[in-house]
Predict the structure.
Amino acid sequence: MTWTGDFQDKLNATGPFEPIIILHVMKWAGTPGREFKAASHPGYNYPEIIGPSVALTGSSISPTSWTFTHGTCSLDIITDDISQLTEYAKRGAICQILMGFTEWDEADFQPIFVGKVQNIRGRNPNYSLDLWSGTSLLSTRLNVGSFSVFSANRQNIFYNVKSSQRTTLTSAYSTSDNTLDVADASKLEMPSASSTYPGVVYVDNGSDDPFYLTYTGKSSNQLTGVTTSDILGTTRAASGTSSTKVYNAAYLAGNPFEILLRILTSGSGPSSPYDVYPDSFGYGLPYSLTDPADMFNVFAAMASAAGGITYQLAYAQSVEVGDSWAWVREFFRDIGLVVVQRHGRLTYRPIQDPNNPLLESGISITDHDIMEVLDFGAYHPDTPAEYQRVRVAVSGISVSTTMRPPETAPMADQILFDNTDKVFASGTAIANEIKSRVQCWGPNVPEYVTLRCAGVRLAVLAPLDIVKVSSSLIGKGRIDQTKVQGYQDQACMVLRVSPDFYLGQVELTVAAIDPF
């Protein structure tokens, strides 16, 4: 859930801004450290060791490539004995920073940052607790379980989807069969609530192309409820017995917000209604660190823009993942989504055309807000080239922008959003919906401006949000819109947000781009 109305009213208020900070070192199975809380003010029965600074360096997004840089947080610690904090806040421990105000109950405090401990540094009595932002939690699974038996890459999601996790047929398979007899069904993992979330295997008989089969249950060493249709772009083939290998695979089906929530929380236990994948598939994060309502709102807007379709994905992971964060980033990037931290929780935001946004933030920035223009760039440095077109591919369908000659150098051929392995229904509607959001980022090169703004109302923003900027301080720009009228009600995409709640200011970088 997003920040409460009372909390946002405080951010929007003028006058003195005196936040109270609570640090919560969290603990659950598989995470380093021990549970611990500390506060910046008396009255909460916690050690009062939090100093007068919380410096947030916001996560940043690079347009066109949509690569993501984790943000950081440095929290002032003032104590003559740092040993207690170093004992509880081990490197890699998960921390939440909560903020509230005088006479607020702790239950009303809101998370402003979640992340993991990078370091504790300084000198007596002044120290800094340094954290990586919440997206860094997706670099590794948190509940890695017992290490009594070695298992390579246990820190990665889908670590059991690998060549050694396989069995063989014990009875011949025909394409009309709805069961599959295997030598050892324990090698094959499937979600709970099997009628809704089937399992999947990858079958290789050595002569035909390998193919996928979904199944809904197990009975001893027999898979039951096996599909009698070709799925996921593969073709079933009759197969013999011991020479046919059956591999464990992960089946991700549903809409984007369901799939992300299942990956994030599976392995966390009963705290999450989305903990349905086998533990080895998911990160094991607590449900409380996610923002399901925000994810659903983004998905609902996407589905509405695609004509009210169900917007279902179907994907099978048949090989081991070597880099969990890269896998998640690339999976969702292809459907025009980026996993971010927003309001101290994990969610995703859509890549958008600022001139025709999917979601409006409703926020305008004017010279009344701007303290200083820190930087202007005619060309965003993370955009390596101007592309001739943007193409979105789904199974059997490809849509693209019209080819046009570039106006700058260097140039490149195309940017591809490849969903041929995950979109098999409503393909035209989904491909065009994605294209409508991403098409201007590639054939155009954005300009950018970095602003320091007074107050903290802009702390509600997250990367990929759309804002309107009106300012005489910026001057005229390079793109067609800004070189004529400057920044006058100019639609921009947010690339980075860095609030300083003690100084009462927000630094943000935004990008402006012409319509395609």
Q: What stands out?
A: The longest strand covers residues 110-123. Residues 302 and 456 are 30 Å apart (CA to CA). The helical segments are 5-12, 83-88, 256-265, 292-305, 324-333, 427-438, 480-485. The radius of gyration is 25 Å.
